[in-house]
Amino acid sequence: MNRLSQQTSPYLLQHAHNPVDWYPWGEEALTKAKHENKPILVSIGYSACHWCHVMERECFEKEPIAAVMNEYFVCIKVDREERPDVDAVYMDAVQAMGVRGGWPLNVFLLPDTKPFYGVTYLPPQNWVNLLKSINQAFTNHYDELADSAEGFVQNMIASDSQKYGLVNDMVHFNKGDLDLMFEQIQRHFDTQKGGMDRAPKFMMPSIYKFLLRYFDASQNPEALAQVELSLNRIALGGIYDHVGGGWARYSVDEDWFIPHFEKMLYDNAQLLSVYAEACSLTQNPLYADRIEKTIEWLSNEMRSTEGGFFSALDADSEGIEGKFYIWTEEELKETLGEDFSWFSKLYKISRQGNWEHGHNHLHLTEPVEYAAKTAGIQSDDFPAMYANALVKLAEKRQARIRPGLDDKILASWNGLLIKGLTDSYRALGHEEIRDLAVATGHFIADKMTHEGRLNHSFKNGIATVTGFLEDYAAVIEGYLGLYQVTFEEHWLEKAQQLADYTLSNFFDQSEGFFHFTDTYGEALIARKKELFDNVVPASNSIMAHNLYTLGKMLHRDDYLETADKMLSKMTKLLLADVQWVTNWAALYCLRAVPTAEIAIVGGDADTMRKDFDRFFIPNKIVMGTSTSSALPLLLNRTDINAKTAIYVCYDKACQLPVTKVEEALDQLAGV
């Protein structure tokens, strides 16, 4: 048992029995390295990471390999989800070394924590050879390593503005630029199977978010066609869990067929938002179904008794990737009984299987009702038959050994989920979805906030780790969503308080962007800024959205100016290669055309809001009160002859109030 046994992170606890003398990241390990003049090995991963488990089994659990590691290095294990700041610094360094990033990430540092070499997964003999080579280099060529490490550090601390040629000139946001961005990203579309033209295929919610907003601003049918193609294939393919609901992290192939089976909260949270918006726009019942099933899975399997949501389900069970989700033909026959005949035609089940070792993984390429007709399945009660078959499989699966659960609760990912739930509620109108979103907001406010500051992680009843910008950005966005579906002003107040805190403690006035770490957080060798959108949008782009929304809601010109300066500075990158900055591009869509400011006032404000929210209008803010309010957009506004009134405004100037949603929609269409 090593020092990791005292930690709460599930990933660190997985390594507590390794013969490696692992330390958690902290003063004890760093001081030991300095006193003993030993290089540091930082090994970074996360609990649902398949190749992290493989390297542990092959290397870290082996006594002879551990002996080499213990002799030559101070060994530190890091959960990248618990310490994204450490991961970001050393991932940046490794990529600067020309190594393709990924996890497990193994980085070698000098005793002063400066990095000089890094690799991802290595098999046992290669790993041992590398350990010995690193030791020889540290012993015999220290000065060369130190020079190299200093170069990597200088690269990390370089100004982002200088590194990417960003300038402070204010931009006139315009629809012409949006067309250029779309034409540029369109070149990378997979127009046959959806998503982008590369494999493995990751779901990229911020790309779909941009395309939906670009379609709203331009009415370009090609944008909507690509969104629908992508969302259809992601909803139908094997990356979606047809039996239990929810999406896996990515597809290892170009067909969305075989996933990397881990399920991450952040993917599912964001996909709820995307499918909700697409459902409002297209009224596609497939999207509504996937939203409902995914929320059901999240509620049943990923929610803690305290009210927050866990981080991830492992890809592996019983040491085999995907074993919980795959089926042999015999298992399906036994489970489905008389339903097997038609079910096997629907999903093309076979004895040899469609994956490894005679296993079948459930996968479709067209909606199930069309797939049934294609397969020659003729039955008036097919929907009931299909639903019943999935229930049988779900019940059978309950008896299997479940994948490992990463039961730490992260503020950032829960913030994303609150937004996903509020968007889902707006699209579907189910009250239990709103209740779930509100309860999650209360969990963060009550359990993960202390004296106005967020903690990043919650486990065993304790909130730990100073919050990062990703936490503040996502939670503020979640709170803004909660206000707009409840009209409870304390959510707006909480969002404003957190925004002001980030401006005081994260914002770099000289650069015009936010640091990733709090001024009260641990100082690493570099204080990074997160600018580029990936599978999760950059915390800076989320903050720019937040400041724009808050600025509109509270008539705070300082918020609006900060957001516009951030977006203006990113415009060079938006026009150069938009696919890496699509959440910024989504904000550009809002700035290129007027934003509607909707005020709903009167006793039926909530009911009227619910009716209004069914429609896809992404470029709006919605505020309301059943009585009266001192909020700027609501001040001195009243109902009309005891009827709830809707005020449609642009840039603080309002049209005549109306008392029917249809009339308000007509006013919006006339702009």
General description of the model:
Strand 15 (449-450) and strand 16 form a beta hairpin. The protein is built from 26 helices and 23 strands. It is of the alpha+beta class and 671 residues long. The strands form seven sheets. Strands 1-3-2-4-5 form a five-stranded mixed β-sheet, with helices on both faces. Strands 14, 15, 16 and 17 form a four-stranded antiparallel β-sheet that branches. Strands 21-20-22-23 form a four-stranded mixed β-sheet, with helices on both faces. The longest helix has 20 residues, at 557-576.
Give a quick rundown of the structure.
It is built from 26 helices and 23 strands.
Strand order of the largest sheet: 1-3-2-4-5
Main structural class: alpha+beta
In angstroms, what separates the terminal alpha carbons?
Answer: 67 Å
Beta content: 5-15%
The biggest beta sheet, please? 5 strands, mixed
Poorly predicted ranges = none
Please compute the radius of gyration using only Cα atoms: 26 Å
What is the helical fraction, as a range of percent? 40-55%
Shape: globular
Q: Count of helical segments? A: 26
Averaged pLDDT: 96
The number of distinct β-strands equals: 23
Task: Give descriptors for this structure.
26 helices; 671 residues; five-stranded mixed beta sheet; 23 strands; four-stranded antiparallel beta sheet; globular; single chain; alpha+beta
What's the SSE blueprint?
Layout: H1 10-14, E1 23-24, H2 27-36, E2 40-45, H3 50-60, H4 63-72, E3 74-79, H5 84-96, E4 105-109, E5 115-119, H6 124-140, H7 142-157, H8 160-164, H9 175-186, E6 201-202, H10 205-218, H11 221-236, E7 250-251, E8 259-260, E9 263-264, H12 265-282, H13 285-301, E10 312-313, E11 316-317, E12 320-321, H14 329-336, H15 340-347, H16 368-374, H17 382-398, E13 405-406, E14 409-410, H18 411-428, H19 431-447, E15 449-450, E16 453-459, E17 462-466, H20 469-486, H21 489-505, E18 507-508, E19 513-514, H22 539-554, H23 557-576, H24 582-592, E20 596-601, H25 605-612, E21 620-625, E22 645-650, E23 653-654, H26 661-669
Parallel strand pairs: 1-3, 2-3, 20-21
Antiparallel strand pairs: 2-4, 4-5, 6-7, 7-8, 9-10, 10-13, 11-12, 14-16, 15-16, 16-17, 18-19, 20-22, 22-23
